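Title: Prediction job returns without error message
Component: structure pipeline
Severity: low
Priority: P3
Assignee: unassigned

Description:
Job completed but the reporter wants confirmation the result is attached to the right record. Sequence as submitted:
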Amino acid sequence: MLEAIRCAGMTKGDMKILYGIVGEGMGHATRSKVILDELCAQGHEIAIVVSGRAHAFITRQFAARPNVTIEEIHGLTLDYDNNELDLSDSVLQNLKSAVPGLARNIEVYREIAERRFRPDAVISDFESWAYLYGMRHHLPVISIDNMQILNRCTHAADVTGDNSFAFKLAKWAVKVKLPRAYHYLVTSFFFPPVRKRRTTLVPPILRREILAAKRERGTHVLVYQTAEADLSLVATLKTLPGEFRFYGRRGATGREGNVIFQPFSETGFVEDLRTARAVIATGGYSLMGEAVHLGVPMLARPIQGQFEQELNALYLRKLGYGDVTPTLSREVLEHFLARTAAYEGALQHYPRQPDNRILFGCLNELLANIREGRPPADRLRVSAMGAYESGDDEN
């Protein structure tokens, strides 16, 4: 149940903010754009450090802004093979790029120092360079991402039970990523009890195109799958009734039977999403949050070895918003599509938000506290969804 919102006032636009964006997966970049648009509108001076594919996206969006500078840094990358994380190849590729990557990151450090940019605060979307800069200079670091829900909330055994080792490993990896931050804003469509201090759950960060979209149920199914995923899916879809609009297969266009390969278009994707009967995709958080917000049932096939995706999908099932599967067989797809009406019924009870005011209210309160030199708050005055429990003494 959504509590009454008591938004903090907009902060004065006189702060200098270092903003770090991890480049692995575009979800980090798209939600950071929403936050950066708000910070720019408030007049803050922002230095963005960003790696990977996200750099080109962020540069297109913000290079012309007079109060923004952008630096490309080196970040870790992950390799996948047939819908599974290839850990050995990922380690090898990152070792190969470690030396030039470190040199680049040192160069960026010097460039920021030479510009005499002295941040008042650091915001990190699961990005380590900005976080370490903040720790080195004794600056307050605000963490904004969905990953911290693994470590900073309590999860029931019926969600994590069969994956206890994978859950513990993922939880540890997240715990050591950004420890001792000033505050953690954790974005989520599910709201387990918070177990740690300085932690606030907020609804999904949604781009304006999704917020403006109106749900109108059609008959097609939207499929999102990268080129590295299961190559047999198209053949399976062709044996099923109905139309499948397929995104993510690089270079594929045209039609194969009832499967239509769609070139990527933000406008086209949002249109197909808001009118879809259902969505079939991986367990990526951004698309899942958008589907839940719009009330579109989703079948998630998480990338193996990515427990964060598995957790998203397990909560999707637990809440009745869709289902999770390790394989996309004909039987699994038929069972899911036969139950879309039931999933839509459950989605009617999701407390969707008309905008991002909860997030912006929380962020404004944190920045105001930092400006006034206040210690980090265990809870923010801006109300958010979810049950809150007393945190322990851990950071």
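Comment from assignee: result matches the submitted record. Residues 16-206+354-371 form a domain with the Rossmann fold fold (CATH 3.40.50.2000).
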